[in-house]
Specification:
alpha+beta, 1 helix, 3 strands, 16% helix, globular
Length: 70
């Protein structure tokens, strides 16, 4: 278990079954970050959690949402 202050990157499954990826939460510890996730997404299942590297220059790509008509 990671115990360092920083951002944690989560993939969760919400209570209604929707997969939510790339959730970034700040926490002093992993357990504090888990608690914040469970407050925002009640009854969620945490699938994965990784600590975001402080020295990493990589950023999450911006995703543009576009409406597509069938």
């Amino acid at each position: 278990m990671m115990n360092a202050s920083g951002k944690f990157l989560y993939t969760i499954r919400s209570a209604n079954g929707v997969l939510v990826e790339n959730l970034q939460v700040f926490g002093k510890t992993r357990s504090e970050a888990d608690e914040k996730i469970r407050q925002m997404y009640w009854r969620c299942e945490i699938i994965s959690c990784n600590m975001v590297s402080k020295d990493s220059k990589a950023r999450t790509p911006h995703i543009k949402m576009q409406w597509v008509r069938p």
